[in-house]
Amino acid sequence: MVQLYIGLGFLLAAVAPLLHRWMGDRTNLLLVVYPALAALWLISQAPGVIAGNNLVFTADWVPSLGLSLTLMLDGLALMFALLISIVGAFVLLYAGGYLKGNPDMARFHAAFMAFMAAMFGLVLADGLVTLFVFWELTSITSYLLIGFNHQDEKSREAARQSLFVTVGGGLALMAGLVLLGIASGSWSLTDIRSLETDLREHALYTPMLLCLVVGAFTKSAQFPFHFWLPNAMAAPSPVSAYLHSATMVKAGIYLLARLQPDLGDTALWTALLSLGGGVTMLLGAFMAVRYTNIKKLLAYSTIMALGTLTMLLGIGSDEALIAFAVFLVAHSLYKGSLFMVAGILDHETGTQDIQAMGGLRAAMPVTAAAAMLAALSFAGLPPLLGFVGKEAMLKAVLKADAFPLLLAVLAFSAAFLTIAAAAIVALRPFLGTLKATPRTPHEAPLSMLLGPSVLALLSLLLGLFVPLTGPAFSAVVTAVAGAPVEVPLSLWHGVNLPLVLTMSSLLLGIGLYLCWDGVRARLATLTPVTHRGPQAWYYAILRAFVSLAEWQTRVLQNGYMRHYILVMLVTLAALLVNSILIRHAPGLSLAFDVRFHEVMVAATMMLGALAAPMLRSSLGAVVSVGVTGFSIALIFLLFSAPDLAITQLLVETLTVILLVLVLFRLPRFSHLSTRFERIRDGVVAAVVGGLLSLLVLIAWDVKQFTPISQYMIENSVSLAHGRNIVNVILVDYRALDTLGEMFVLSLAAIGVIAMLKLRVPPVRRSTGE
Amino acid sequence: MVKPGSVILNTAARMLMPLQLLFSIFLLLRGHDEPGGGFIAGLVAAGAFALYLFAFGVDATRAILRAVDPRDLIGTGLLLGVLSALPAWFVGEPILTAQWWPIDALGMKLSTPLIFDIGVYLAVLGAVTAMVMTLMEVDTDEG
User: What ipTM was assigned to the predicted interfaces of this complex?
Assistant: First the structure.
């Protein structure tokens, strides 16, 4: 059933254009029902999952191969699925207002619904392959959504960049998952969880972990792969709010959390994740305050949050995992809300530049209230959920086993920078005097206000009643830790070190907010340094790939038939030498019973082959090749293989016909090659011919498997109702091979026709040589 | 380039082509038990059309083919090949498992291998004829 519901999401994506034709703008409301129903169902299942009963749904796909589509709902999956459905419902509602009247609304809905369904599949998947497929689907749909404004060059470039980075990481992920499957001997996460052996001690642990971490880091925008996320802000605001803050970028985090019980808690894991996450956290917070574009600022602060989550997984203690769960939920709620606020500001004022906005509180009171509430959670101030998350984070960092001091410094710096960023986003546009903006600001419609307000209110409610959420978070942490964990959560912990840190970071943050303009001017001197960052590496790598492709095309595919044949034959010879002479000690039995007429046929064949390259006329060459072919047919006939003989004869005849047609179009034979080239070609030909003869002689002796010809002969009449075994093989025993050959033949014919019909413009032909 | 052939070639082609086509169908149908089969039969039929092409040229050959474009034969052949794979599915066997339906009144058997073989025949015939025809057309275009 759950599988069908995910399928329904893809179906809705497919029929979105049709729905638009029938229902127009009301399509949006209909589609909102999909995530809303999912959320209701998930909430109804929540008590069972919290009580510790994980749900498993299995649907057989190819039972004979053991393939099935299995989904699993545990605490971690439940938390993610709830975020996907609840944030998804509100963002979709919001998108209906934001993109109202956009002619490409149907395209948006198609990609958005497909993304949502893929995301559900990703977090619920139990099979490694299933997980990977959905993972890639989210990358592809994200590509389509970032490039939604495809007339804009910048959008296209940003979409391409995110696709290259995340799909490139996806390849690493695939390698990692395959290694995981090999190491554990199982392709199901549930089975891997209950494995007797410890994967951490497996020989493949290090390469497996590195591959998986690259996959997760690219998806979740960790340093040094973070640069695609700020560029992805070229997407419409609903996309940023949903994919690039609440859901997709957390997929990498989800994967790491999923693997934590099986692969976590080693020196490598801790170093990679806590340091990588810590650096990303500070980098994101620092870059955020350098920007005045509200969406860029939010994007970098998202990188900060993702870094924090990775770092917490790296620390891996129970406290860190509690902080992980709370911080993740808090971030999804406030960041989703703030991105929608950013979209409203963009939509109603016509600018994304914070400096151009001011005094909007009177015109947009609800937006202002939602922004400020969400920003309080963003800054980590009581009594919101963000405060609980940040306190827990600081507590976990201070108690970390590895690098506690370094991580504490990173976390503290990130905290005060974040407070400044929160203040900039929530206060700057709304306080002060009203500034003139490209559009006259007025309050957004209800559909657009609902999302940011409800998500911000949820931050507040979950914060106020945080002790009640203990059991729910406990289910999440239990899934990540792999063992039951009690979660005691409360707003007030008394005066302790984390609270002192929060208060001092608050003072620093407010200070930074007040002198933001001056600080930003100073930071501008750093621009040459940031321009040499990972984004520049990305372009350098891309350029290197293009040069490599050009080089190998020039060398390997230079358009000369003789060159292609030479490359293929030399490769073949190398492979043959390797397998015949080195790996297989040849044992030749040359005791053949050869008759006189057989020797004569073979001699004719060889004469034809020798004459072909020596003759000066093209017709003569065709005829001598034909002599070889017809001699082969004769041999088939002598060894009583009439079918092969007939086929060979017909093919020879038709080849001659085709060659005659072609010959008239070819230039006269002339000496194009140097003496050296001819000798080289002769040597290559002799070596390949010799090796192939040797191969045939050896093949006569090698019987690695019992031949199946006896089976074919015995069953030809009884099972296949045919006495001509050659034909029975072609159309019955090995029909799949024949079908493949039919496709090859057809493609070849289409290729020949296309090449003959192609008229190359004369200009290009003259520059080609 | 290729001019319509001599009297002997023309007469021979006119006489031989129907015989060749008949022979190809004979080869096709008996192929399961005796030397023959779709591939060989397709080549024989293609040879028949090649002969006709040499004797009378492209336009005349198109005329006797009427509405049938050799390129469509390729697709039809592939389609038959794929279709013959499917019946096994409906009886719950792996695809391409041969299915036999005896027709007692005619004393013969219809089967998926036969459909498959006809597919091979059409694909081979279409591919070779299309190639030869296109080659000759290019000649006339540029000649």
Answer: 0.91
Contact B113 A651 (CB under 8 A): no
CB B96 within 8 A of CB A736: yes
pLDDT at B143: 45
Give the nearest chain A residue to B95 (CA atoms): A736
CA–CA distance, B32 with B23 (Å, rounded to integer)? 15
Residue identified by tokens 């001659």 is A656
Cα A546 off chain centre by: 21
Q: Are A310 and A212 in contact (CB under 8 A)?
A: no
pLDDT at B1 exceeding the cut of 60: no
Mind telling me how many Å the CA of A137 is from chain B's nearest CA?
A: 29
pTM of the predicted protein model = 0.77
Residue B63 CB neighbours (<10 A): 10
The answer to whether A135 and A122 have CB atoms below 8 angstroms apart is: yes
Give the angle subtended at the CA of A103 by the CAs of A100 and A104, to the nearest 5°. 100
In whole angstroms, how far apart are CA A725 and each of A535, A651, A730, A734, B114?
63, 21, 8, 11, 14
> What are the 10-residue block averages of pLDDT along chain A, 769 residues in total?
89 91 87 93 91 85 77 92 94 91 90 94 92 94 92 91 93 94 87 83 90 94 90 90 88 93 88 92 91 91 93 91 92 93 90 86 89 91 88 89 88 90 89 82 87 92 87 88 82 80 88 87 80 86 92 84 89 88 65 83 92 84 88 90 89 84 74 83 92 82 75 80 84 89 93 83 47
- What are the residues of chain A with a beta carbon less than 8 Å away from any beta carbon of chain B? 642-643, 646-647, 650-651, 653-654, 657-658, 661-662, 664-665, 720-724, 726-728, 730-732, 735-736, 738-739, 742-743, 745-746, 748-750, 752-753, 756-757
If DSSP states are collapsed to H, E and C, what string results for A549-572? HHHHHHHHCCCCHHHHHHHHHHHH
Neighbours of A755 (CB within 10 A): 10
Record the tokens describing residue A545, joined without a space.
């790939």
CB atoms A721 and B32 under 8 Å: yes
d(CA A247, CA A233): 15
